[in-house]
Amino acid sequence: MEARLSGERFRVSYTLPGPDLAQAEARARALCIEQTVEFPADLVGDPDIREGVFGKLESLVPAGDGREGRFSAVVSYASECAGRELTQLLNVVFGNSSLLPGVRVERLDLPPGLLAGFSGPRFGRAGLRELLAAPSRPLLCSALKPMGLSSRELAELAGKLALGGLDLIKDDHGLADQLFSPFTERVARCAAAVAEANARTGGRCRYLPNVSGPAGQVQERARRARELGAGGLLVSPGLTGLDAMRALAADDELGLPILSHPALQGSFVVSPCSGISHFALFGQLGRLAGADGVVFPHAGGRFAFSPEDCRSLAAGTAAPMPGIRPAFPAPAGGMTLERVAELRSFYGDDVIFLIGGDLHRGPDLVATCQRFREAVEG
Amino acid sequence: MEARLSGERFRVSYTLPGPDLAQAEARARALCIEQTVEFPADLVGDPDIREGVFGKLESLVPAGDGREGRFSAVVSYASECAGRELTQLLNVVFGNSSLLPGVRVERLDLPPGLLAGFSGPRFGRAGLRELLAAPSRPLLCSALKPMGLSSRELAELAGKLALGGLDLIKDDHGLADQLFSPFTERVARCAAAVAEANARTGGRCRYLPNVSGPAGQVQERARRARELGAGGLLVSPGLTGLDAMRALAADDELGLPILSHPALQGSFVVSPCSGISHFALFGQLGRLAGADGVVFPHAGGRFAFSPEDCRSLAAGTAAPMPGIRPAFPAPAGGMTLERVAELRSFYGDDVIFLIGGDLHRGPDLVATCQRFREAVEG
Fold first, then answer.
1. What is the predicted pLDDT for the residue at A66?
2. At what angle do helices B307-316 and B340-347 cross, to 10 degrees?
3. ipTM associated with this complex
């Protein structure tokens, strides 16, 4: 090896199967190789590569969650292996080992030198609160749907949601650039409707169109959205790749807050002994990739998340990462007005409540939104 | 709904849990809503949306694989819901339902109108064979590694692998733009070494650098690689997003064959009752996203794939999709020279054999590669 390493290393906590300590250790040591050189260790003679580039098993103990035969391994990697790129960081953390049975990424511990390559959420919790002039209460969000409505119809809904006092109105994640409501037409109309409502109420409601789309068009759509008056962006990093979201957050010409949506990311979390933890995927990686708010299905809706998953996810949105702002958890997925108090006691006030279809149950959408707003102002 | 639908629909086969038929039907019908309008069905009055946009349950039967309490549901969706975008197609297929417990995508059935929006692999099996002047035998591939070697050292390896008669030499998927071997320097040196070897042997070996990287740089790296003499590209769509690969394949100015690598995609396939099947993810979606060859870990290596998974994956690389070329399966993951005959009887001749570290076991890399070549020419 000709290059000089800084000596800085980042750590990844994995859980992996044993069934006993000796077998767990063999798996953990294999993982140190798999995630770096991916080459028979005995054929690597260069001591600098062996010492610097190989992953290092820092600790191995029985998993604290009481699951029989599972172990917690902390592995460290040279920061240089990640090459200051989110794609390559993900690759070192879990590229090949995502294919190994029973291995789960539980959390990342990233040192300042590596984090210096990431700007994280542009606004974060404090910045988004300032944009919305909502210094302490939970923030309120809804989604424009159903898919199939015209841009005109969606804009009418957007206007009502804004008149009712919501803070954030996002496109449903299923609104892309379909003929029902083509992107440019939809964004122009919905942004105008929200601006008009704000003019009437004096509010600061923001419309966040969905810019998830083809690789070459994500940034273009985001910039167009800004020109058309959008106040933020919705991105599904499972569809676009996490780095596409990071690039939007880092784009100074955009300067817009970002909500992330979990579409297609479920496969990383639904199996408790594989994939990536809620804490790491939605919390830590979501923030590294620039999300100011992270949408996910709260427990008790129609999805698979447990209360413990949600608690852990929310903890990840605020876990210390030097230089990276905390994001808002945005529990959703079949939430109802009746559950606002319960969710508030679960998440506290640093939360975005996202209620979709349930707001449409009453005869008067504006009035229902006002009740939603009153529920968090009381 | 103001827009007119064509009436064309695509179908997705899911397996999902019951435990009995009635409960499976309730889940399948919920999925029809979840993947489209994501809105309380009783609140959608518009008959055109109910009839055209809602997913339709086309069939529901006990899963044929004998797994107790699992059911196969075929759901159809209007092609317009996917808006001619791979990101949105993925979203309709499995966006929210990836978050539902126990749901797995088994296969896609895409009609010609929808497929017309995709060009698929630029070369496919026949085209890649023509590029390599290898009309019928298995193709031979290896990877440049370990990470930590300098560009000069990697180029030396590339030259030897090419002299030994390999067809394709790819970067290890862990080589990005690290200081060990920066992208431009590495690609220039390795491409030159392979060209020099070809000049000596009269061969047509191609070097495929890894262009997986930040969202804004994938295309740029690919074009730079072409200028520097690369003969193809390696992409990890799990890191970049599937659509970034599709965009490279569709780029006429590039015109290079693409190998895909499964980094970070493991979480979609490792749990048999969630995620996406090997057939659909690596076969069908890999081809929609433009892969000419699909790297994956063959059974019996150090990963979790079973022989049945591999057989099904390989079937997906050639399953009929009108207008979309078949891709090569590229089994890898700890393969050895000794297993070539076994792999050939498993996959037949339409296969890329990818052997990494094992080629380096002998004293003479060129001679070992020649033995590899002889093994498939015999």
1. 66
2. 50
3. 0.97
Give the Cα separation of B152 and A102 in Å (integer): 38
Our answer to whether residue B261 is catalytic in this structure is yes
Sheet with A258-260, strands from edge to edge, namely A233-235, A258-260, A293-297, A328-332
Q: How far apart are CA A373 and CA A163, in angstroms?
A: 11
Give residue B181's identity as a one-letter amino acid code: S
* Per-residue pLDDT tens over the stretch A218-254: 999 999 999 999 999 999 999 999 999 999 999 999 9
Q: Which two tokens stand for residue B151?
A: 């560009």
Distance, in Å, from the CA atom of A177 to the CA atom of A184, rounded to the nearest integer, reads: 8
Residue type, A319: A
Gyration radius (Cα) of chain B, Å: 22
Find the Cα–Cα–Cα–Cα dihedral B281, B282, B286, B287, rounded to 10°.
-110
B360 included as an active-site residue: no
* Tokens linked to A289: 């990739």
A331, amino acid identity: P
Catalytically active residues of A are 145, 261
Please classify residue A47 by burial: count the beta carbons closer than 10 Å to its beta carbon, then call 0-12 exposed, 13-18 middle and 19+ buried.
Answer: exposed
Q: How many residues does chain B have?
A: 378
Asked if B42 has any chain A CB less than 8 Å from its own CB, the reply is: no
In this structure, what are the phi and psi dihedrals at residue A170, rounded to the nearest 5 degrees? -110, 155
Give chain A's largest Cα–Cα span: 74
Token pair of B74 as six digits = 């075929």
Q: Which of chain A's residues have a Cβ under 8 Å away from the Cβ of B213?
A: 85, 87-88
Q: Do A86 and B214 touch (CB under 8 A)?
A: yes
pLDDT for the residue B66: 66
For chain A, what's the residue count? 378
Q: Beta partners for A3? A: none
Mean pLDDT throughout B255-264?
98
Name the DSSP class of A19.
S
Average pLDDT over residues A24-42: 96
Residue of A nearest to B251 (CA): A216
**Residue B196 corresponds to which amino acid?**
E
Place of tokens 């394709």: B168
pLDDT at A112: 96
Q: Is the pLDDT at B223 greater than 80, yes or no?
A: yes
Closest CA in chain A for residue B38? A146
The tokens of A368 are what? 């229902």
CB contact under 8 A, B83 and A179: yes
Among candidate residues B108, B131, B127, B141, the one with its CA nearest the CA of residue B291: B127
- With 0-12 / 13-18 / 19 or more C-beta atoms within 10 angstroms meaning exposed / middle / buried, residue A160 is buried
> What is the structure's pLDDT at B303?
81
The tens digit of pLDDT for each residue in B61-103 reads 999 866 789 999 999 999 999 999 999 999 999 999 999 989 9
pTM of the model: 0.98
Q: For chain B, first and last CA: distance in Å?
A: 63
**Confidence check: pLDDT of A213 > 80:** yes
Which candidate, B269, B326, B320, places its Cα nearest to that of B296?
B269
Statement: residue A141 has pLDDT above 80? yes
A49-54, long-range: CB within 8 Å, 24+ apart, which pairs? A49/A1, A49/B146, A49/B147, A49/B148, A49/B149, A52/A1, A52/A5, A52/A78, A52/B148, A53/A1, A53/A5, A53/A78, A53/A81, A53/B146, A53/B147, A53/B148, A53/B180
Buried b / exposed e along B35-56 (16+ C-beta atoms within 10 A):
bbbbbeeeebeeeebeebbbbb
Which chain A residue has the Cα nearest residue B298?
Answer: A99
**A37 CB near a chain B CB, below 8 Å?**
yes
Q: List the 213-272 stretch of A: residues with Cβ below 8 A of B.
A: 213-216, 218-219, 236, 238-241, 243-244, 246-247, 262-271
Backbone angles phi and psi of A330, in degrees to 5: -130, 80
